[in-house]
Amino acid sequence: MELLxxxxxxxxxxxxxxxxRGIGLVFxxxxxxxxxxxxxxxxxRGITPVRESLAAISEHFPTWKRFVYFPTLLWxxxxxxxxxxxxxIGMLAALAIMIGGPQAxxxxxxxxxxxxxxxxxxxLVYPWDCLLFEAAFWGMFLPATELLPSVLxxxxxxxxxxxxxxxxxxxxxxxxxxxxxxxxxxxxxxxxKSFFINQPLPTPLGWLAAKLPLPVQKLSLAxxxxxxxxxxxxxxxxxxxxxxxxxxxxxxxxxxxxxGNFGYFNIAMIALTVTWFxxxxxxxxxxxxxxxxxxxxxxxxxxxxxxxxxLISLPLNTFCAQVWMLWPLWRRVRPAFLTWPVxxxxxxxxxxxxxxxxxxxPQTPPPVKILPLIEATWDGEHWETLAHFYSPxxxxxxxxxxxxxxxxxxxxxxxxxxxxxEASIMRNMLGRFDPYGYGGIPGPLMLLRRIVExxxxxxxxxxxELERRLGPPQATRxxxxxxxxxxxxxxxxxxxxxxxxxxxxxxxxxxxxxxxWDHPLPPPELWHFDDVVWIRRSHLGSLLERAARGADxxxxxxxxxxxxxxxxxxxxxxxxxxxxxxxxxSSWTRIRxxxxxxxxxxxxxxLYRFERLTGRYALLLFARLEPLxxxxxxxxxxxxxxxxxxxxxxxHLRLLCQxxxxxxxxxxxxxxxxxxxxxxxxxxxxxxxxxxxxAVFRYEAFVYQSQKARLLAAxxxxxxRPVPDAKERERLARIEGIARRVFGPIEIIDFLKEQFxxxxxxxxxxxxxxxxxxxxxxxxxxxxxxxxVKEAET
Length: 794
What we know:
This protein starts with a helix and ends with a helix. Helix content is 52%, strand content 6%. The strands form 2 sheets. Strands 2-1-3-4 form a 4-stranded antiparallel sheet.
């Protein structure tokens, strides 16, 4: 206890000198890691060039909005030279922070601006990225430090600022814990045994830890529960017990570092946890005088709103941290002024100054890795696998240590394998604060194209030895493999660390000269159906306002429409839509034949232009009808009332608009004139008919979504879990009913699971998704698919 007491009351100038330099060190490591990844990812020849992204934003947000919604120094210089220089500028500033001196707070400002500028090209959304954004923002309010070799700060920070850092550690730890443990059952006691393999990039020690006896795994999980749930709460009682929680957190960070590659997360948490050793400054906080006119009012107001927004975000998790404030749900709240915190969080989120934290859901995952592997052929017959540097590729791939370096390409592979990427139909439930991920060409698919064209940037994405010897391949593809950890004896004798099994498709073959690549970034009319906020922010927002007031959609549809022409509008209504109207849209059974016919008749480019017109007309009708689903506020969500137009969600309203559109111009115009007519159409709404246009325009994308929906179901819904009793089933049904009236994609995913199962919809190898059973011991094992699945596949 004496040692803990001494730790709890370390000299404040020592604590904050170490914290400031620790954050500087983390910035230096992170930016050094980014320095050789930024051009392959986002340079002019990168997978997703940022200059093209900024050009699209300039077109769709033509005013000051682009700078506010997408803040980056790249607006002033989009060259590769400047993109390459940004990490180095940040590294110099981080080095200056570590050296110390009166300039330290200003160097934090530079690091923050650099990181904010790199967010757009490098997608900095991992929890440790969010953590560093917040640390950098508040680092600007830390005191100066003495020059090395002294590690002291010149003084302690304001107590309010000290508490921001203390609470940041609490939010991360408690956030991870509540997401991981709330909802667990005694059957999930084998969580760690599976997690050590299932995590994105296990280390050799992590691979070995999965082999530890189950009692050891259970004990480790119990310790993790203590460190992540009750102990972080001691932050509110500065003193020796809080120091005990800090020591436990530091030890946990070391263990996570040894067993998993999570970039610089562990070093960042270690640096920030040191703040818990300064009880003196924490106890100096005087809430009674917090807003005193004699105090630093501006900083205290900033701290107040940061803490308020952090509290609102606390129940949420990392996966929805970037998008929850964009959910269409908030438009239903009445009176609207009650949403002011959400409005402010949304407005300030581009500054990345507050986030939600929480990863790894509570149920025990399967002890496997589901990964897409890129394969290439040079002769059209034999396919070679292109090896990752850190993620498993072959059965002999040795797990490696790479943290604190973060290979962002390999880190993302595990999410890509499950279809949890920006192209996912669920991307507005859990995704990025960005409207461009859905409706275009996914980055991994663009990489396949670059490989066959011999235009892959750099050598850091994967091992390019085969290409150096043989040149660009004839074709590339990506297939989904399952990796299971081998036995230790097998690893020692044969050098096989993994058992690799082909379990399904990912992307079908891409050949030179083939593919539809001319429009990788979608315009607003093709954004996700739930991206209502983004669409209204874009240049289409003014058109939607006019449409809502009754303006003629046919007069509005070509405004700010680029090169779309009136002739194409006429062809759309007089030829294309009547052809769609005559088809059976209640089923997608023969959709492949329809797609082939339409592509042969119109060509891909013309269909793309029809897709844009479909999106524009549907949005203009959506603006006209939306008041009819908002007039009852939140009541319909909880079954307490009905809106005039009783569709479940805004997503379903977009489906209804497309279904009405497919019935022809006369029907469409009649609903525009008299919006109440939509009520009778809503009674006939079906997902198949509402999404028929998308199934035709984006056939391959929807096949991909349906495949991944089935994979996720097999991966997450294990056999062996106890069947809930009647009371629990009623409670779960009530929760699910509410969720389905909040998130439209839930119902769409259920629909897609049953689509594209026939041979004619097979774009590559067949699906053979693994199935799993949870045992009473807490272990998850692979089992044969249930009979119902086998019969369906047959």
